[in-house]
Amino acid sequence: MGSGQSGLGRLSASDVGAREFNLPDRLNYKVSRRELKQAYRALGITPHDKLTRDLEHEFWVDSYNSIRNMQEVYDINPDEMHEMRFRPGNKYGTYASMNFDGSFTIQQSIRSDTYDGVQKTYEFDLKSGFHPQGTTVQDIMAHEYAHAIEAQLIRRIVPQEVHNMFGGATYVSDTNRIFAWADHTVANEILNTARANLGLTQAGFASAVKSLTGYGYETMQSSSSADSGHHETFAEALSAYARLGKNSGALATEVARLTKKMLKETRPQRATKSSSTSTKKPRRIVKKGGS
């Protein structure tokens, strides 16, 4: 990839999350591999050694900045999210995928190509309207993190299933949550509420989705119900809004607003600053200098 910063800027000094959770400001390409892995751990994601070696350094730096931007825009602290990790996948025709267990699967489409090649593929998709206009290849992982947000909302809203065993013992499982994830109940609820709030007919909503993302539109059209299949539109809307703000359009802006509202209403109570026993400032691991 060419020279230059990732384009996402730097966190403001008032960013509480970055200070509380020892998250670095936006990284540049001079950050070392060791520091980059530390940054990902602070982000709440466990790196994968083989992936870190196989994929270009610029990809990991841009992905970090993109995910960190998502956390900032949607006011998410890493300890509020399920533990996440990267793992390799073997699929072609898709960049990456997010699983309910918190694993980001980096597919063969990215792993077998150069970062410049992935960029060119993404730019081709942009020209065909497959992804939101104004987004970049850096938003691939922002899209997957949006799926992680949906999974976390399901964990907060859908109770675990309690199973009774002989002898009075019990155990809990995520069966109900996994079904809710498979049905994308949170994404469907938010998209349908956004449609109602914007006063869109079914046809008007389909047109708005198509204008935002061809990927989401195709997923919606291939679903068995007109009120389902919104999970890709949900992820595209959140990542587009994180990148573009209100310039992402009315639908993405409303989806982002409703998601922020749901995250806030379901958030576990945060510890206050006074409860912290440490006053030591976090060590910054961002290197100064060029990109």
Can you count the helices? 13
Binned strand content:
5-15%
- Give the biggest beta sheet: 4 strands, mixed
What is the count of β-strands?
Answer: 6
The strand line-up of the biggest sheet is 1-2-4-3
| Low-confidence parts | 1-21, 272-291
Mean pLDDT: 82
Content-based structural category: alpha/beta
Q: Could you characterize the architecture of this molecule?
A:
This protein is 51% helix and 8% strand. It is an alpha/beta fold and 291 residues long. The protein has one domain. The strands form 2 sheets. Strands 1-2-4-3 form a 4-stranded mixed sheet. The chain has a two-stranded antiparallel sheet with strand order 5-6. β5 (161-164) and β6 (170-173) form a beta hairpin. α10 (202-212) packs across α11 (214-222).
Overview in brief:
With 291 residues, the protein is an alpha/beta fold. It has helices spanning 16-20, 33-43, 49-54, 57-73, 108-111, 115-127, 140-157, 175-183, 185-197, 202-212, 214-222, 231-244, 250-266; strands spanning 45-46, 84-88, 96-98, 103-106, 161-164, 170-173. The chain has one domain.
Compile the SSE list and pairings.
Elements: H1 16-20, H2 33-43, E1 45-46, H3 49-54, H4 57-73, E2 84-88, E3 96-98, E4 103-106, H5 108-111, H6 115-127, H7 140-157, E5 161-164, E6 170-173, H8 175-183, H9 185-197, H10 202-212, H11 214-222, H12 231-244, H13 250-266
Parallel strand pairs: 1-2, 2-4
Antiparallel strand pairs: 3-4, 5-6
